[in-house]
Design goal:
mainly alpha; 61% helix
Length: 96
C-alpha cells in the first residue's frame, strides 16, 4: 500500500493513464462532444434583434470554450501532463 506523497503520486499516475486512454478513445470524445452540444428546448421563445448596446457582446459559452476550460481544469489539478494538455488543446483549436 502507498501512503502520503507516494499515494498521491500513484493516484495521479493512475488517473493520468485513464485519461490518456479516454482521450484516445473516439467513442468517448464523441460522447463528450454530445454533452457540450446537447440541444436546448427553445419552443415558445421569440427571437429578437440585438440592440446596439448588445452588439459585439456574446455571453454564450461555446462548446470549444467549455472543452478548453475542462481541459485546463484537468491540467491544473495535475490529472494530465503538459504534453497531453497541449495535444488535446491543439485538437480542440483545430476544430474551430
Amino acid at each position: 500500500m502507498f501512503s502520503g506523497e507516494n499515494a498521491r503520486l500513484a493516484l495521479n499516475r493512475a488517473i493520468e493513464n485513464c485519461l490518456k486512454i479516454l482521450f484516445e478513445n473516439q467513442a468517448f470524445l464523441s460522447a463528450l462532444n454530445a454533452l457540450d452540444s446537447s440541444p436546448t428546448d427553445i419552443s415558445g421563445i421569440t427571437p429578437s434583434s440585438p440592440t446596439k448596446k448588445d452588439e459585439g457582446k456574446s455571453n454564450e459559452v461555446k462548446p470549444a470554450d467549455r472543452k478548453l476550460e475542462k481541459l485546463k481544469d484537468l491540467y491544473d489539478r495535475n490529472l494530465i501532463t503538459k504534453e497531453e494538455y497541449d495535444s488535446e488543446r491543439k485538437k480542440i483549436l483545430n476544430e474551430l
